[in-house]
Specification:
By secondary structure, this protein is mainly alpha-helical. It is built from 13 helices and no strands.
Length: about 290
């Protein structure tokens, strides 16, 4: 098995990711494609040791995923005050979403052994909990009001959103968080945080969303519940046949029709990707300000 450390990469890879981020212009009509290129270099080649795949196959991710799906089930079949009581949230708290996210994160930390708590997956999962709660509640109330939702509104949202969609949203947020860690590590302080945040946002809405949907599709195709996917990948990742099946997990979004080639050597021929003969455009060389020696 490989490492879950998505930020453990060579200086050459860091330079490639950073170069793509330097090219990113949020005002450009090609911004979505530029953001994707940064993500493509961050993810790298699909192999059984790929760090992103290792994260999605990890027991840390599985534990976190089970906790969020269990919460969704509780809100569907229990009274809101019963669910909140499980997390020691007082009935008087009429806007409990923030405290609920904090309690779930604390519970996740307690369920992970010390070595699991230090993995990038664990950090990404904790980061994804609050995001996922907001995403779910936003299905019933305006997003700007989700953080202040009442217990009844939270319950209504979880009853409205299927458990598989909750799982898909959580996976999307975990994957997005892992990408953000990679971007920040590669930036080495040379890329503005606002630019990194915008690149992550675009990839969350595109690449991460498609990755999570493909994982859900894989689960359905295998007759598995979403919470069984991490275990399935762990058990089958060494088998060539299963690696071929898992190609659908490592997928790039269909880019906007801007006349820009968006295929990457490591992503060609992947379902949902571009034609094989489409290639990434060459980057323009930047003029150097360095003076020649002598």
């Amino acid at each position: 098995m490989g490492s879950q450390n998505v930020t453990n990469f060579s200086a050459a890879k860091a330079n490639r990711i950073r170069a793509q981020m330097e090219d990113f212009d949020p005002t450009s009509p090609q911004a979505d494609s530029q953001a994707w290129f940064a993500a493509a270099d961050a993810i790298g080649e699909f192999t059984k040791s790929n760090s992103f795949i290792q994260c999605l196959a990890s027991s840390s991710f599985e534990i976190a995923l089970r906790s969020i799906v269990s919460l969704a089930s509780d809100f569907k079949y229990k009274q809101p005050e019963q669910v909140l009581k499980q997390f020691n949230i007082a009935p008087a708290n009429r806007q409990p979403l923030g405290e609920l996210a904090a309690r779930i994160t604390q519970s996740l930390s307690e369920n992970l052994v010390a070595t699991q708590q230090e993995t990038k997956t664990a950090f990404a999962a904790k980061d994804a909990i609050a995001r996922t709660l907001i995403d779910v509640v936003s299905e019933s109330v305006p997003r700007e009001k989700a953080a202040s939702a009442s217990p009844e509104e939270i319950t209504e949202a979880f009853k409205k959103v299927p458990a598989r969609k909750v799982s898909t949203l959580f996976t999307q947020n975990v994957f997005s968080s892992l990408l953000n860690m990679t971007f920040e590590a590669a930036a080495e302080g040379e890329i503005p945080k606002t630019a990194i945040a915008e690149i992550e946002r675009r990839n969350r809405e595109q690449l991460a969303a498609q990755v999570s949907r493909r994982i859900e599709g894989l689960a359905r195709g295998k007759g598995l519940s979403p919470t069984q996917i991490p275990s399935f990948i762990r058990k089958n990742i060494d088998k060539a046949k299963s690696l071929k099946e898992l190609e659908s997990v490592r997928v790039k979004p269909n880019p906007p029709a801007l006349g820009v080639g968006v295929a990457d050597a490591g992503f060609r021929g992947i379902p949902g990707g571009p034609p094989l003969d489409v290639v990434k455009p060459k980057r323009k060389k930047k003029k150097s300000n360095r003076k020649p020696n002598g």
